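Hi R.,

Here's the chain you asked about this morning:
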Amino acid sequence: MNGVNPPVVPRLLVSVRSAQEAEAALAGGCDILDVKEPTRGPLGMADRSVIAAVAEVAARNGAMCSAACGEAADFAADQPSGNCDSGFETPVSPVEFFKLGPAQLMQNANWQNDWQVAYRLAGNRFKSSGEHSPSPRASAVAVVYADWQRAAAPSRHAILDAVAAAISDADPDQPRFVGVLIDTFDKSSGGLLDCLSVTELEDFADRLRTLSADGPRLFLALAGKLSSADLSRLVTIRPDVIAVRSAACRNHDRQASVDAEVTRRFRAELQNCFGEVSTEPSELLATERA
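And the predicted structure, written out as tokens:
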């Protein structure tokens, strides 16, 4: 992954809230199942039983699985998603990736410490339980909110600086960051491209690739109420992952159910837009999984 490689067809991530939605998403052609409860916020953490059920569907179908864990500011205080069961005395079913939102972190001048503590706690709770698991714990994905001011979150460049610092930390207990997700916090105020221009996203992607050139490879995932109409504008950014929920749901309503046919149509549009450049899927995520 570097500045001269041509774009490739991104992996499709679909956020699901049940095993049934997971089956529908996979039937529609998604590559990564993301467990999330949308009624609990942009990165609402699902109940433990739901995470385990979706992880089982992913494992049975040879798909990757990620889990949203709420906001880092809450997790650092050991209060993940007040409405979900938080009894993680033993690890949940294995997932490849986990992520935490940065909302409200700017209320603390030492937010980087809270952010790292939250990721360490979450990583410990998502340790793999299988004897033959390829990794002792899930890998971390840093989250940037495109509408960071509205979320009282650090800026995209501040988050990337924190990722760079975490990567350079030799402490084995620190989370292993493998990617960055750009998402939106306020789902009622437009999508990703309403908050950041294509040029701003290209600049961020270039900086991420520069960081990757000096250390571990980091993938770039884009989310934020993306629709098929947005895809052609994202080609020059060369994301590794396109992450959606509403675009995979009936009537494009994120509170509705994920639908296999709606997902299939979005997947076809994704292939059509990026397939003009390359039909080969990115191997970055597969490499990180090994």
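The chain has eleven helices and eight strands.

Let me know if you need anything else.
M.
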